[in-house]
Amino acid sequence: MARKLTERPRPSGLLRLALRAPIPLYRWHLGWLLGERFLLLGHRGAKTGLPRKTLLEVVHRDPESGSITVAAGFGSKSHWFRNLEMSPNATVQVGTRRFGVRAEFLDEETAGDIMAGYARRNPRAARTLMRFCGFEVDGSEADYREVAQLGLRFVRLKPRASD
Question: What residue spans define the domains of the chain?
Fold first, then answer.
């Protein structure tokens, strides 16, 4: 049975610095070094309206629609998550490709299905992600489905036709 271990604070200090360290790779046109597993999300600050950038791990990719699903490891308190709630239009850079997206917030059932699929494809990464997000899981598919009910939020980034 999945359980929430702690309410993890947002990263700060050295951890925040380490998590943001790959962002300049995209500015230097070297985002391809991170492959298709990560993306750079460009969004607007909800309060300031200033441009913001966040590096996120891709949890699921739909080749038909081109949509990409990411997880908000710190739940709905993540700044990028709150910013997308206020202004769902954003940009995504994956490797060397850059395109406009619109955020769609997934319900718990859909999110659970996506997390279970991610865990099947990447069991080690899924366990690490869960620990980092403050969840304890036994590795069963049911556990990964349950984390969506315990606060892990998922966002589908759908390509905008106009971009």
Answer: 3-158
